[in-house]
Amino acid sequence: MLNIKKLLAIVLLSGSTISYAQVNLPIALNLQNTYTKGTRTKAGAPGKNYWQNTADYHIKVSFDPKSRNIAGTVAIDYANNSPDTLSTVLFKLYPNLYKKGAIRDMPVSAQDLTDGVHIKSISVNNQLQDSTKHRIEGTNMMLNAHLAPGQKTHFDIEYAYTLNKTSHIRTGQIDTGAFFVAYFFPRIAVYDDIDGWNEFPYLGSQEFYNDFCHFNAEITVPGNYQVWATGNLKNPEQVYNPKYVKLINQASISDKITDIITQADVEAADIARNNPTNTWKFEADSVTDLVFAISNHYIWKASSLVVDTKTNRRTRVDAVFNPAHKDYFEVVNYARKTVETMSYQFPKWPYPYPHETVFDGLDQMEYPMMVNDNPLENTADAIELTDHEIFHTMFPFYMGTNETKYGWMDEGWATIGEWLISPVIDPSIVDPYGVAATENSAGIEQDVPVMTLTPQLTGVSKFTDSYPKPGLGYLYVKDMLGDELFTKALHYYISQWHGKHPMPYDFFNCINTGSGINLNWFWKSWFFDNGQPNLAISKVSHQQQKYSVTITSIGTKPVPINLTVYYQDGSSQLVHQSIACWAKGNKTTNVTFAAKKPVKQMVLGTTYDPDTDKKDNIWKP
Question: What does the pLDDT read at residue 13?
């Protein structure tokens, strides 16, 4: 699918492993300290002293679509599993992005500016706190407290805010009868072994970092609305009329596409129980967030599939959308194929959650078990968006990475997922997402290493360092190791860190350990160092049909060698060497091949080989 042939295999000799030149990766002190504390290991696995905090959330919220007012309570049982006594507890109030005077890195319409989240009351262990015990700065709220190591504490918060009507940044009103509601409740920030509290404010562009928690949510909306959310619907018989309960159950066990809600059903207006309001109850365990979406006019297509042949566990896949958006009628097929491909081909790990709902919205954003995707008329665009956002289920939601600091640890994976899965859904697709931007910006002032913290990125690097550059890095390692060994190494990383909070070095070291090969030379060159990719055909010699081609790395960023030999009769041949050919720091390498016919020309580079100067990539006899 990537037009790359594995012509150079890495051979593992019995009882031994191949190791390239030993390179030590530069590491910041706060990350190095995790090894000293024993919370992480240099082999990549969690250390004997690894810990993480968690909480049990019970959310009760009412949403009025007319006023867009959200009001509710959240009860939190928080466990301090750290070795530290916490004198303050940090909460995240993400809706304060729309608060008047808040610092943002993107514009917000004046009509969406509010007074932010109104905290009506806070109780700690059933003791009401006065307002002097907490202070709010942007999207952070600090509450004075005393939590000893191992202590569990109960918080009750009553709150309200107004959902944005426009300026749809991952959440808000979609149309007069559809809303996507995310980040809608106060939640406790991550306290980890690296930085302590995650104090980074939410400014709009950077994404999120939350603990794995248990959620129960009761969502009350007018009786003519349906609700879709993270987790399992616990009371379908109390909110749906019997016909729809039966259809949902049918879709959950059927490989076929089930029309749960049709246009005729919407017009008949007899879907939900005929009450002034209905309360929808959802439960989700070991997830980092809970979101919901509502509509009074969307239709619903669903199917399910076995994602784990060992247990026959199934995942239901939903497309919930405005029937006026004709492209969305095929989204359920794209989503189903994505879940299938993820489970059995790449990353070849059983899809971890009971459902995946693609909701017709105004963004291109992922959430646990939910996707908020705008409609797209172009088929390839719709496929690429669908599989990209669903791939995020693994990264960050199953793996718990810190998106705020290390955006590349989830967006890079979604990018390679998009590149690999889109052609499975539609073989005509060649998806060059981000490669041109990488090529055009390589080596300029704004081009900085992938390991740069996401909040420090600016200009084009905000895109390239999060999406295509790490995506290419993953692709090159996959090519270098070969599918079988790469999958083994990736599964080692997933098995060690799912449900936890891996940092970049945990990933690098897990791949090294899982593959049995020290790849630090590559991690350093592609993720830590500056530079630009630039290969050239510098010499061609041949004796009859035997050709030898010298490739020179003019740039300072290694990329694989993909040499396409075009013959005079119009046919072609691809000669490939993985990026391992540059492992020793050499600036030249030779590729050889036997010409099958008279050669017309040779061209260096394919879709996923950025090159800052292609003038020297063509050779003609």
Answer: 27
**What's this model's pTM, rounded to 2 decimal places?**
0.95
Helix (H, G, I), strand (E, B) or coil at 500: coil
Separation CA 549–CA 124 (nearest Å): 72
Cα 33 from Cα 39, distance rounded (Å) = 9
Tokens for 277?
């309001």
Instruction: Please state whether the peptide bond connecting residue 347 to the residue before it is cis, i.e. omega within 30 degrees of 0.
Output: yes
Neighbours of 377 (CB within 10 A): 9
pLDDT (tens digit per residue) in 407-457: 999 999 999 999 999 999 999 999 999 999 999 999 999 999 999 999 999
Q: What's the farthest any 2 CA atoms get from each other in the chain?
A: 89
Q: How far is CA 362 from CA 168, 295, 375, 566, in A?
A: 7, 14, 8, 45
Could you give phi then psi for residue 521, rounded to 5 degrees? -60, -40
- Let me know: does 145 contact 88? Beta carbons within 8 Å: yes
Q: Assess contact for 372 and 379: CB atoms under 8 A.
A: no
Task: Note if the bond before 423 is cis, omega within 30 degrees.
Answer: no
CA 196 – CA 220 distance, rounded (Å):
36
pLDDT band at 295 (very low <50, low <70, confident <90, very high): very high
Q: How far is CA 397 from the centre of its chain?
A: 7
Return the structure tokens found at 406: 């290390």
pLDDT exceeds cutoff 70 at 14: no
